[in-house]
Amino acid sequence: MIRKLISEGKTPKEIASITEIPLKTIYYLKGDMKLKRGPKPKYDKITRMRVQKMAEKGMPAKKIAEKFNIPLRTVYYIIKKRG
């Protein structure tokens, strides 16, 4: 049943709620089948790289956020995640 739901394109979370089986168990039972990945990043790789480069050059996060129209908290997240 789980394999059928996966092949229909259901997410693990949806399968867990339909079958009333814990999400952790769904991942265990899926075996070698590929599951639908989570949401894609909101900002593309190029934008994230530009944010990081500008931060490296010393531009304040607030200015970067204004330039790219990205929330300030997101700019800090992108900068922190570069490592």
Please specify the SSE layout and strand pairing.
Elements: H1 2-7, H2 12-19, H3 23-29, H4 45-56, H5 61-68, H6 72-80
Which short descriptors sum up this protein?
83 residues; mainly alpha; Arc Repressor Mutant, subunit A; 2 domains; 6 helices; elongated
Characterization of the model:
The chain is mainly α. It has 2 domains: 1-37; 45-80, Arc Repressor Mutant, subunit A, CATH 1.10.10. The chain has 6 helices and no strands. Helix 2 packs across helix 3 (23-29) and helix 5 (61-68) packs across helix 6.
Order of helices and strands: HHHHHH
Biggest sheet, in brief? none
Number of strands: 0
Strand content: under 5%
Instruction: Categorize the overall geometry.
Output: elongated
* Overall radius of gyration: 19 Å
Q: Return the average pLDDT rounded to an integer.
A: 86
**Helical segment tally?**
6
Q: Return the structural class.
A: mainly alpha
